[in-house]
Predict the structure.
Amino acid sequence: MNPDFDRLFAGKSRVLLLNKSDLADPATNKRWIGYYKQQGIEADGVTASAQNARSTTIRLIEKATAERVRHYEEKGVQKTIRVLIAGIPNVGKSTLINRIAGEKRAQTGDKPGVTKGKQWVKITPHLELLDSPGLLWPKLGDETIGRHLAFLGSINDEILNIEELAGTLLAKLRELAPAALFERYKKLDAETPESALLEAVARSRGFILKGGVYDTERAARIVLDEFRAGKIARVSLEQPPKEEETDNPSVT
Ligand SMILES: Nc1nc2c(ncn2[C@@H]2O[C@H](COP(=O)(O)OP(=O)(O)O)[C@@H](O)[C@H]2O)c(=O)[nH]1
Ligand SMILES: [Mg+2]
């Protein structure tokens, strides 16, 4: 999560949707949800492409805003809740909104004010969502965070050394999900030196250029694509801090 969000959205009601939960390790998803709940933040895992995304999102928002809504109702005012969907690039913000709004649109048909793009999208009579461009932050912190963002496709691949990135990802996957990795790329195993991982993928897929040179660039693209599509394994790159460290809710 963008570390600036705590500051940017201070004083606002906030819910946390852990999207693409279908791509992450289920046990780690649970730990992250528990970690945020412990800090008093409504959180749940969603898959924007699945059926439960709409109901889970609306349920969380209604829970997080119930107090304010009640406050206004006591004054006889029916407030519309407006929610900004914010997150780093490529986490599925637009997919989520389209998913939720698409179902709604199918029910209600064309209606003024219900439009896609950079406008408020009416979800229920008193709930509207707004999409936003992905937000990264100026200093990505240590190298590991930048690398994880690159693995996920949150940083434009064009400014990255794809082969180096894919090689590092393969080494990480060999730690996190060795069996699944070796199953997918048969020429790769526990003994393969780190510098030869990408070539092993090229050999596994028969990516050979004229002159018998392995096409490691093509292998790199395949590894990144397959990882991002969840074809290699369900893995989580980061774990929540251990419980003793989470006692203080201001820890980010
Ligand atoms: N597997 C999986 N893919 C998703 C999910 N949500 C979005 N995607 C894919 O992730 C990519 C980025 O989605 P997009 O909505 O454009 O992300 P945004 O940059 O946050 O708006 C697209 O290829 C989506 O199809 C999800 O829950 N699971
Ligand atoms: Mg988007």
About this structure: The chain has two domains: 5-137, 143-228. DSSP finds nine helices and five strands in the chain.
